[in-house]
Amino acid sequence: MPFSLWLSLAAICTVGAMSPGPSLALVLRHTLGGGRLPGVTAGLFHALGVGFYALLTVLGLGALMARFPLLFEIVSIGGAVYLAWLGVKALRAGKAAALTPEAAVTTRRQAAREGVLVALANPKLILFFVALLSQFVNPEMSVAARAIIVVTAMVIDASWYVLVAVALSQSRVLEWLRARSHWINRITGVMLIGLALRVAWGLVA
């Protein structure tokens, strides 16, 4: 893969990773709930979900979705339900997440599970790969070039969310956020439910 083409790929992946959404809200929530390690874990496992979609893309995800639109609808419905469930869970947390460091309500296992599932359940992520990343794939592309696409997407996504978790877990920042965590929970819940409703509306419209 030419270096100039890789730079374009890296730029698109960076913009995609840094755009606000349920993934950022998830990393923020787990960092607030358990500190640096759960936040970093959520970010790393989110990158695994991103890597899975990147792998599907280089294997022909765009063509598959075009041939079997029902498959995309099924994935979207499942994703919308899961995002709505996470949103309700965040809203119900209320002030319970205004925590002391000794009273964490999240674990690395929970962070890992939700990190990868939020990536897999986010229909916007599927559209991102189908619409943007597919343009870097052609039938004559070598296995090495396809691997570069997958690794680039994973590394950039992981780097961004690990950086977010580390920055937010600084003691002064974390204390400030924890004092306002009930508002962060509410914003996160509304964001997740809003995305779920938007996906559902897109399917019936």
Automatic annotation (TrEMBL):
<feature type="transmembrane region" description="Helical">
    <location>
        <begin position="44"/>
        <end position="66"/>
    </location>
</feature>
<dbReference type="InterPro" id="IPR001123">
    <property type="entry name" value="LeuE-type"/>
</dbReference>
<keyword id="KW-1003">Cell membrane</keyword>
<keyword id="KW-0472">Membrane</keyword>
<protein>
    <submittedName>
        <fullName>Threonine/homoserine/homoserine lactone efflux protein</fullName>
    </submittedName>
</protein>
<dbReference type="Pfam" id="PF01810">
    <property type="entry name" value="LysE"/>
</dbReference>
<dbReference type="GO" id="GO:0015171">
    <property type="term" value="F:amino acid transmembrane transporter activity"/>
</dbReference>
<keyword id="KW-1133">Transmembrane helix</keyword>
<feature type="transmembrane region" description="Helical">
    <location>
        <begin position="116"/>
        <end position="137"/>
    </location>
</feature>
<feature type="transmembrane region" description="Helical">
    <location>
        <begin position="143"/>
        <end position="163"/>
    </location>
</feature>
<dbReference type="GO" id="GO:0005886">
    <property type="term" value="C:plasma membrane"/>
</dbReference>
<keyword id="KW-0812">Transmembrane</keyword>
<feature type="transmembrane region" description="Helical">
    <location>
        <begin position="183"/>
        <end position="204"/>
    </location>
</feature>
